[in-house]
Amino acid sequence: MDIVSALRAFLRVAETGSFSAAAIDLDLTQPAVSRQVSALEGHLNTRLLHRSTNALALTVEGEQMIAMALKVVEAVDALNEATCAEATTVSGRVRLTLPAPLGLYVSERLAGLLDRHAGLSVELIFRDEPSDLIGDGIDLEVRLGPVSDCNLMCRRIGWTTAFLVAAPSYVERRGMPETPDDVGGHDCICYSRAGDLRSWTFSNGSDETSVRIAPRLIANNAVAVHRAVLAGGGLAVLSHILACADIEVGRLINVMPDFPPARLPINVVYPSRKNLPLRVRTVLDFLVQTVREDPLMVSSLGP
């Protein structure tokens, strides 16, 4: 039973004093209105109307029900109005989680989106491990690598690009690895985002090679890894978002350019495609476009 529709029918019958008049107002048949009111009485286990051949009258319970029924119907109407307004206006808060490097990249580009939508707000949460989206109230989450949770909607929006890097001071002290086989003998700084902390995977464009490492330093945040490698602490795999500017000016060296780290898919996950609010769709579209603007993340470069 649609209890809101049944309450509307009951209120209209009470106002007009007639099932037939209520049916005309509600654009229903008289039997349909009668069934709705009877169903409501059955649901509440209470008679709301005295019926006779020539007249209708409210019972005491029916009179008491009118005020409560009006509150329910008015609340539903207000909710519908708010939803319709949101359907045409981008407003409200979107909670977005993403790894730190991509979070830095996105945060520099959010001003334009927020300027276009005065009622929109975005809460950025830098998080490297998967969230409980529903439990944590997360609208969208960017995850790197395969997504195994089949209960989530998943949209691939690009691919990572990373470099194996070291500070010049480290290379002067320990030498330059030439091939993946050389990496295992070096001091390694490991970003513990996910996966096996004891190996790194490199690709020459056709084949992938995994090498065993013994990390001297492990951090759960890529920015901390970036700081440590700049200080000469060892080799590290860094996102191009963090590494490119330092490579260009010589603060970091791109180690083994012929064997770059293997690329990972960039995925956006969210609980459901059904009835996705406009505020969330707007931020999702912004993420897709923002990633596509970086040539090192476009999907066409992926394997």
Keywords summarizing the entry:
Arc Repressor Mutant, subunit A; 23% strand; rod-shaped; 303 residues; five-stranded mixed β-sheet; D-Maltodextrin-Binding Protein, domain 2; alpha/beta
Can you characterise this structure?
There is one protein chain. The protein has twelve helices and 14 strands. The two termini are 53 Å apart. A hairpin with a 4-residue loop joins strand 1 and strand 2. It has a five-stranded mixed β-sheet, with helices on one face. With 303 residues, the protein is α/β, with parallel strands linked by helices. Helix 1 (3-16) crosses helix 2 (19-26). The mean pLDDT is 88. It folds into three domains: 3-86, Arc Repressor Mutant, subunit A (Orthogonal Bundle), CATH 1.10.10.10; 91-158 and 266-301, 3-Layer(aba) Sandwich (D-Maltodextrin-Binding Protein, domain 2), CATH 3.40.190; 162-255, Periplasmic binding protein-like II (D-Maltodextrin-Binding Protein, domain 2, 3-Layer(aba) Sandwich), CATH 3.40.190.
Instruction: Give a count of the beta strands, DSSP E runs of length 2 or more.
Output: 14
Per CATH, the architecture of the largest domain is 3-Layer(aba) Sandwich
Give, in spatial order, the strands making up the sheet with the most strands. Answer: 4-3-5-14-6
CATH class value of the largest domain: Alpha Beta
CATH topology of the largest domain: D-Maltodextrin-Binding Protein, domain 2
**Main sheet attributes: strand count, strand direction, barrel closure:** 5 strands, mixed
Count of alpha/pi helices: 12
The global form is rod-shaped
Oligomerization state: single chain
Q: Quote the distance from N terminus to C terminus.
A: 53 Å
Give the averaged pLDDT, no decimals.
88
Structural class: alpha/beta
